[in-house]
Design a protein that fits this description.
Blueprint (H helix, E strand, L loop, with lengths): L3 E10 L2 E11 L4 E5 L6 H8 L9 E4 L2 E2 L4 H4 L3 E4 L11 H11 L5 H11 L15 H11 L7 E5 L7 H16 L3 E6 L2 H7 L2 E6 L2 E6 L1 H6 L5 E5 L2 H10 L6 E4 L2 E5 L3 H14 L6 E5 L3 H10 L1
Parallel strand pairs: 3-8, 3-9, 6-7, 7-8
Antiparallel strand pairs: 1-2, 1-4, 4-5, 9-10, 11-13, 11-14, 12-13
Helix pairs in contact: 3-4
Bound molecules: adenosine-5'-triphosphate (ATP) and magnesium ion.
Amino acid sequence: MPIIDIRNIKKNFKKQTVLEDVSIQVEAGSIYTLLGANGAGKSTLLKIVTGLLNSDGGKVEIDQLPVDKDPREAQKVFSYNAQHASVDEVLSGLENLVLIGKLRHVSNPKAVALSLLEQFGLLDAKDKIVSTYSGGMKRRLDLAMSLVGDAKILFLDEPTTGLDPSSRLDLWKVIRKLQSSGKTIFLTTQYLEEADQLADTIGFLKDGKIIATGTPKEMKRLAGENRLHLTFSPEDLKQAKEVLIDFEPKVLAPELISIELTEEMTTILNILKVLNDHHLEPTDFETIRPTLDDVFVTLTKG
Ligand SMILES: Nc1ncnc2c1ncn2[C@@H]1O[C@H](COP(=O)(O)OP(=O)(O)OP(=O)(O)O)[C@@H](O)[C@H]1O
Ligand SMILES: [Mg+2]
């Protein structure tokens, strides 16, 4: 039973169809990553899923609670972190967190606030007013705010957009830690690398639909299998091609043979054995793995 169940969501803004038919199921305890370009409709979908915006069709259940019928009840089990920071610039980090804690009726707001500040590396800056924070610090504080209370499901809209590489790595750590503490995380991103690093399941949102879904590994397969590239000296190339004929070698360049690795290790070992039996030694070799960028190009072409 998925903990987030999104069925056939549709949304139009006047004549513009933004979401045509979107269905997503997320298992408890997993990280789901929704990938899509600017304007694909990621934020629109999150607003509908969290009950902030009405859809034009379809339904959403979170922890088996119907969001459209009873958003207040559903909102108790999740927290939503919007794309644009909702921190109060004239308060300190600590004051922001304590305020949210009081609003959410947590039993010891200050203790909760301090523990979150520590978790997000903001303890030293706790008493500075937020307008003096860097962009990365604000984003982290904003994320910390969405963790006040005890939501078991987190919706994060582009949590790392605009962060420098090192702050991004820090946030990935936090997100992984949240998952290992049992949370279910639904995040959006435009970064393929981020999806690759974090996701249990990736969905590609394009033209109002999820055009592909799977694990990062499965998604990369869409752009083709891994390949082995072998370089030979000009005098060895012809013979190498002949002895490797069962592996369907492709000659990509005058000295370069490329072979698809269907069963990766077994294929590599078999190739090396054949070469060794014929006293052929490649001058260089490399395994080529499709990246999510290749997938994106493949999918958006079609
Ligand atoms: N309130 C609104 N009224 C009219 N059009 C809207 C509204 N909100 C979003 N849109 C349009 O819907 C489309 C999807 O917007 P959305 O913000 O969901 O995209 P996104 O995938 O989150 O993009 P980004 O990566 O830039 O955040 C855009 O064309 C946008 O202009
Ligand atoms: Mg958005």
